[in-house]
Design brief:
Largest sheet: 5 strands, mixed
Low-confidence stretches: none
Strand content: 15-25%
CATH class of the largest domain: Alpha Beta
Strand order of the largest sheet: 2-1-5-3-4
Bound molecules: iron/sulfur cluster, FE2/S2 (inorganic) cluster
Number of domains: 4
Oligomer: single chain
CATH architecture of the largest domain: 2-Layer Sandwich
Radius of gyration: 27 Å
Helix content: 25-40%
Length: about 375
Amino acid sequence: MSDGTILINGTPHPFEPGQTILEVAEAAGIAIPTLCHLKGTTPTGACRLCVVEVKGARNLLAACSTPAESTMEVTTDSPSVARSRKMTLELLLSSGNHDCLGIGTAKDARGLFDARAKTDGRSDHLCPSWGDCKLQDYALEYGATGTEYPRSTPTYPPELDNPLIIRDFSRCILCGRCVQACNEVQVNEAISHGYRGAESKIVALGDLPLSQSACVFCGECIQACPTGALVGKKSKGKWRPWDVTTIRTTCPYCGVGCQQTLHVKEGRIVKVTGDKEGLPNKGRLCVKGRFGYDFIYSEERLTTPLIRGNGELREASWDEALDLVADKLKTIMDESGPDAVAGVSCARSINEDSYQMQKLFRAVFKTNNIDHCART
Ligand code: SF4
Ligand code: SF4
Ligand code: SF4
Ligand code: FES
């Protein structure tokens, strides 16, 4: 039941108790830029990009952390709001190695940007998130160039010591979304805010490399990061948004059935992300679902059944392999009874297949010798 209405840009909008201005605006289709806000987690109000004018308030208020109240009059887009957002962006750009702009602030900057990235997009010196960065998008939208304030020198070198995640602290804006994703979404509690002032840094277990911390390499923090500060090592430099198609699918690894998005370039998967709208995972993935996609291109992958004869494995057709298995099972059960056979169903198969496997053993073979390798 609605608690009341607030006026947003002159139009009344109903809200539920506890909803923030941002949530009411989003439900009404009114765009407010955000960097630190991570849906479903506790608002931190860290970046100040989502500021709006509220009539009677002394300062601009952060829409993501200000609860809606009856009779509030909110303006989401005014000259002072735009000025504040631009200044916030300039400060963020100056606080690290954000060298992707520098082509002016004309309305067609994005086009120029894309053209340059297309010809230059694989060079190592380009930020791996170029074209896939919220900070960059908003800088272009608000005309921030990163030249307004002196640029600070990066304090910490990048962390490259594990096979899956690159942490580039020079591109971290300390928005804290990775911390929220790790602690509140995945509940792994591997990272937190560390140090103070100019030394501030996202740290893992007293500032150890991720590989020596409680990190389980689920990659949720990469998905949450709005900049190039967290990047998947396998996908780095292999794609830009304009050269991939996305395909929603079900993770092949276990029976949970997480929904994921494959980013496919020229017929090859270059990256996997969780589908935020898909159930049951709502965007979350584990290490296997997010990073375990490249096995399908392994030259060692078996693509046909193998039958052992005279100590050697030879390739066989599926019909031949299945007939052989069926014959052997029949022979064993004829000679020694149904309890002489057992089945272990694969945790990577879908639930329906595992169900059919136990039906085959219990209802057809008449044995309860059936198990599932997830238990091991
Ligand atoms: S992190 Fe974003 S803003 Fe910074 S250099 Fe990379 S693309 Fe540009
Ligand atoms: S990979 Fe997962 S566990 Fe590790 S820091 Fe990121 S969110 Fe936390
Ligand atoms: S690593 Fe990314 S998500 Fe984490 S604080 Fe830095 S910019 Fe934000
Ligand atoms: S999105 Fe509201 S303060 Fe960052």
